[in-house]
Amino acid sequence: SMSFVDGKLVVNSTNKLSYFTKEGKWISERKAFANLVLYQVKDNFVAVGPSIDAEKKFRISFRLFSHDLKKLKTLYHSNISVNPQDDYILPLSALTGNPSYKGKVFVVASNEDFVIDIFDAKGTKIRRIEKKEKKRVFTAKDQADALDWFKNRSQFKNFFTQIKNNIKFKKHFPAIRDIQPADDKIHVLTYKRKGELWEMIVLDMKGKELKRLFVPLDEYLPFSYYAILYSIENGKVYSLVEDPDEEVWNLKITSI
Q: Coil, helix or strand for 253?
């Protein structure tokens, strides 16, 4: 992903942060540990990637590191395992695409419910936002579609018969699919649909609901660590949606 920090363009990729001027001139690079994606939050970094949880499992976590990459604390552990022999629990819990915004860290802090934790740059929790939201049922058709996706996906199809018994389904989709803080608001994607569109709930920074709308997004993938291809700026949602028939990507712009 990309973001602007202190007037610099910051490109986040696995194991490193790359800094550029707004004109695209390379400034510097910051290496990280293997399999981590870093996001700068003031003088510290949020690291998203696998770490050992209380059950001695390697699962995706959000951890805070100092500027010299010394671990300060774990902010949240999801139930998303990176051990191939472990269960694939579907639908996946939310993974915030860019958790850093204006010196704070925003994390979806539940595998099931509508819970958002906000931390300061030192990892102190300053607010928890909770809402009661009716969750979409993960139907028998959803389960069949997910199995079909695994069966035909290049990285899984050759050993689908081995992993099929490790695919476990929840009764409902999680309350939150993704969050994106922008424009001094929190934009929450859910799994609710209106035709081809997806629900977005807009909150203020204290959790008060401001608006609901439906926005176009690219194809839903049952299992993917990649961020959803959308961004928010100046009251507009910019999303990339693939047209497989024309083999092109279309930029969709939706006013909030």
A: strand
Distance CA 151, CA 144 (A): 10
Strand duo 26-31 + 37-41: pairing: unpaired
Query: To the nearest 5 percent, what fractions of the chain are helix, strand and coil?
Result: 10, 50, 40
- Separation in Å, CA 154 to CA 14, 149, 160: 22, 10, 10
- Tokens encoding 35: 């399999």
- Return left, alpha or beta for 97; rule: phi > 0 is left, psi -120 to 50 is alpha, else beta: alpha
Q: What is the pLDDT of residues 151-188, one digit of tens each?
A: 988 888 888 888 888 899 999 999 999 999 999 999 99
Rounded CA-CA distance 28/30 in Å is: 7
Q: How far is CA 216 from CA 93, 103, 184, 193, 206, in A?
A: 21, 29, 22, 10, 26
| Tokens, residue 250 | 């279309």
User: Using one digit for the tens of pLDDT, what is the confidence trace for 60-108?
Assistant: 999 999 988 899 999 999 988 887 778 889 999 988 878 999 999 999 9
| 216 closest CA partner among 204, 225, 229, 205 | 229
Q: Which amino acid, residue 70?
A: K
Tokens of 99: 């958790």
- Rounded to two decimals, the pTM is 0.88
Q: Are 217 and 97 in contact (CB under 8 A)?
A: no
